[in-house]
Amino acid sequence: MSAFINALTTGAFPVIAELKPRSAAGEELVGTRAPADIARAYLDAGAACLSVVTGRWFGGDPAMLAEITRLSPVPVLRKDFLTRDKQLVASLELGASAVLLTATLLPAAVLATLVGRALALGLTPFVEVVDEAEIERVPNAADCVIAVNNKDIRDRERGPADLGRSTRLLSPALARGTRCPVSASGIETPEQAARLIDAGYAGVLVGTGLLRAHSPAHWFADLAAARKERL
Ligand SMILES: O=P(O)(O)OC[C@@H](O)[C@@H](O)c1c[nH]c2ccccc12
């Protein structure tokens, strides 16, 4: 099992905590804070994995990824619209353990090639999907994270999130063979995260919700409390 999937499925909190300088709509999320300080706060709170957005739309850059992977003892996902083999090699050199592959943007043959290349490099493919047809196109699903994106990247994620999409697509994702279904985007509250994890998601990816929270530690404590309440 890959280090990324192992960390997510065995950690105290099955949360991939994301660093994203700003939203696609241009809202500042990191502001004057140092990204390294935010990453340390995520780690102290108990995040199983980190995610760093390197795409320019979101104010990110590869140097920030390198800075975070240097300090992080947990696996780090590189979030960007990766389309080429050499970007996978660069991600590995920057210290990433997992790479985003966006099914919506990649023709089936290209997705298959990139998943194969990522696995050959020892990177965990984090394949983002928005519908059943895309799930059907995920190759080697047993070795991939299948991440259901609750927002739509076709409108640059400006529209509202539909967490119901995660509810609808959990069974098809598991049927495809992934051991690690993840719900991503638009998860604002610990209660929403608790509901998705208790429904059967191996993890949730949270950016904006954690970046806006006063304290990641409180957000995680509230997640633990919400899960207990639901037992
Ligand atoms: O901030 P949110 O709503 O919690 O979403 C995080 C993450 O899913 C989102 O940043 C994202 C989803 N797909 C992407 C592709 C590239 C960059 C970023 C993303």
UniProtKB/TrEMBL annotation:
Segments forming domain Indole-3-glycerol phosphate synthase: 6-216
One Gene Ontology MF term: indole-3-glycerol-phosphate synthase activity
GO biological process: L-tryptophan biosynthetic process
EC number, UniProt record: 4.1.1.48
Lineage of origin: Bacteria, Bacillati, Actinomycetota, Actinomycetes, Pseudonocardiales
SUPFAM superfamilies, A to Z: Ribulose-phoshate binding barrel
Entry protein name: indole-3-glycerol-phosphate synthase
UniProt xrefs under Pfam families: IGPS
Reactions accelerated catalytically: 1-(2-carboxyphenylamino)-1-deoxy-D-ribulose 5-phosphate + H(+) = (1S,2R)-1-C-(indol-3-yl)glycerol 3-phosphate + CO2 + H2O
Enzyme class: lyase
InterPro entries registered for this protein in UniProt: Aldolase_TIM, Indole-3-glycerol_P_synth, Indole-3-glycerol_P_synth_dom, RibuloseP-bd_barrel
Keyword terms: Amino-acid biosynthesis, Aromatic amino acid biosynthesis, Decarboxylase, Lyase, Tryptophan biosynthesis
Pathway as given in its UniProt record: Amino-acid biosynthesis; L-tryptophan biosynthesis; L-tryptophan from chorismate: step 4/5
Domain of life: Bacteria
